[in-house]
């Protein structure tokens, strides 16, 4: 079997024995006509010795932009023996749920309701790498790895929420892969590939604070923009500090500039659209994710002309931007549902 590099990037890193390790696959898809979205997360957590046994988990969130009272979050935890991992291609199963390089299916039920999904897509030909050097995806720095083998794809299939089915045809979707030995201190992340003015445009952004020995780093900012068929990626180590970010729950302001292009973004989410999720780190500490898949984004595009920045375009996303704020404390006003 000949695999693309993108599929190789999706293959599970956990060796089945290592402790102090986590691995995450997540996807999101927007059903634009209804203003709804689905987020699904397939995970492994092998805590440090003495912090519990390895587990596999399946998570999902349904979001309704027009009626946030329908927002639903569910999770199920399995012994790690219920996870099935392929190592010669990408196929990862948690219980009866499965994710591959080109499809995902699963379901959850609980007091909050029921969620099921059956999705497929044509994979991207190239991975979006958050880090600039291949060595950064090996051991050592950084302790948390991130890449997106399917950053901006069109999904088909359906998801069903409490008996209501949403059928998808060329729906904007995203699939990513995370792993590492320790999660960051806090981060803000957003993704959009459903801009009204140009559906082929895409944005991926991450602003993270990490632990450096006894000290905490400043915000390290990584941005990528696909504009008029071309990628502009600002992920070099110098960019981590020169890219701008101002973030608080509900609002994120970003800016990145290169030799020829400058991008200024404004990401927003109403508090009622945020679903709170509790994560466990490998050392047993907790993080809280404030998660929305129906946020808004405005992206202002500038081009250098004669030594000055000229405004050339404005792209907008209305209820189709995924955004999350993850912190070591809960945000008042956001209900922890999972």
Report, as a whole number of angstroms, the end-to-end distance. Answer: 38 Å
How much beta, percentage-wise?
over 45%
Structural class: mainly beta
Give the low-pLDDT segments: none
- The succession of helices and strands, N to C, reads HEEEEEEEEEEEEEEEEEEHEEEEEE
Radius of gyration, whole Å: 19 Å
Helical segment count = 2
Gross morphology: globular
Helix content: under 10%
* Mean pLDDT over all positions: 96
Number of strands: 24
The largest β sheet comes out as: 12 strands, antiparallel
Domain tally: 1
Summarize the structure in words.
This protein is mainly beta and 338 residues long. The chain has one domain. Helix content is 4%, strand content 60%. It is globular. It starts with a helix and ends in an 11-residue tail after the last strand.
Walk me through the topology.
Elements: H1 5-10, E1 21-31, E2 36-46, E3 55-64, E4 72-79, E5 83-85, E6 91-94, E7 97-100, E8 103-110, E9 113-121, E10 128-129, E11 144-161, E12 164-180, E13 186-192, E14 202-209, E15 211-212, E16 215-216, E17 220-227, E18 230-234, H2 237-242, E19 244-248, E20 251-257, E21 261-268, E22 275-280, E23 286-305, E24 308-327
